[in-house]
Amino acid sequence: MMRYLVVWCFGSIMLVCSACSSASEPGQLAEFSSNGQDILVRNLHAGSEHRFTLVSLRDRSIVPNSDSATTKWDIGFRKTTIIVNGGKIRAGRGGIQRLQNQRYDELREAPLTGYRGDDAEDNLALTPRSGESWYLYSGTSITPLKDVVLVLRTGDGTNFAKLEVQSYYKNMVEPSITAPARYYSFRYQIQTNGSRQFP
User: Fold this and answer.
1) How far apart are CA 82 and CA 182, in angstroms?
2) How far is C-alpha 18 from the chain's CA centre?
3) pTM for this structure?
C-alpha cells in the first residue's frame, strides 16, 4: 500500500511540474505553415505580462527565453509590443523599420538603410503606441493598420524579411471585447541568402 502511495505522489508531482514548465514558456501554441512564398504564423500567444514570445523567422520556430541573449531570435511579441533582436539592449545585429502606405504584396525589395534597434526599454525601435506601431486601438478592440509592413534585418545581421500582422485575436476572429486577444497571426517572407529581393 505504501509503495502505491509513493508512486501516486511522485506521479502527481511530476504532472504538476510538467504543467508549470509548459506554462512558463509563452508562445508554445503557434502554428507555422507555408503558402507559396509566404510563411504563415497563426495563434502565436503573446499574453505574458513580463516575457516576450521570441521567434526565429529563419527557422520558423519559437525560441525559448533562455536564449534571449543570443542571436537565435529575430522578433519578439508581448501584448501589443514588438521588439527586435538588435540595438543597445539586445545581443543581435538585427533591425526593423515600419513602412506606411505600402502594400505587402507590392514590396519587392527591402530597404538598404533605415533600420533601428531597441536602444532602451523606453526607446524601442517600434514605438508601442496606437497608430505609431502596427495597430490601431479603438477603445474596445485592436486592429492591424492598413498597408503597414514591417521590414526586418534578422538577429544574425545577414538576412531580410517583410512581415504583415493580420490579426490580434485567436483564430483570426473579428475583434471584439469577448474574443480571446493577444494571439498574433501574421505572414512573412524571408530571404536567407543575404538578398534584399522578395519574389
Assistant:
1) 12
2) 25
3) 0.85
